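[[Per-residue structure]]
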Amino acid sequence: MAAWSNWWSNRQEVVVTQSRGTAKVVLRRRFDSAFGLLGSVGAVVATTYPLLNPFPDTSYMVQLEFILAMAPLTWFMWMVGPHPVVKVYDSGVLVVNWFRRYWVPWAELASVESTDEVNLVLVSGERIGVASGAFSVAASLRGNRLQDRIRDGVERNRPDRVPADSGGVVRSLDLCPWHFLALVGYLLVVAWFGVHPPT
């Protein structure tokens, strides 16, 4: 229970921190985001059709087994595709990775490293990896321009005067549970109508 309380507290702190400034830049891995979005939409369509048009005598339980297989797969494609992002605010940088997010106030950010991957280097010496700027063979063959674009997007928007009272770096899980539950709810309704079509 304490772990849940700490997680929710971190979530609330992130929301409050973001409200202190305006998102000036949004940085994504464009191809991965587009491919993941298309894959997620395609998976929803590929799941919806057989649920609405099941084989004769297919039971609702069989439909549920299909949902149990497809819903996590669709959710995973969303989490690793369109979900990762870097947002630059007036008060700091929000890094959203596959399953975690980090709020880094400007006072806590020492520099941004860009090699074949991107890392936020904190004043404490800790490094926070950026999923949107992770290594890929395609990016490496292009001279890591993607990583440089993310680094420049952050550094270029660093304010000249950084607030001293930053509140510290905030880390939290980011599993998008409402997205997953909405998907499952939609598929359950579709499966019901597939087995019990309106007359």
Summary: The CA atoms of residues 61 and 120 lie 47 Å apart. The longest strand covers residues 100-105. Confidence is low (pLDDT under 50) at residues 1-18. The radius of gyration is 21 Å.
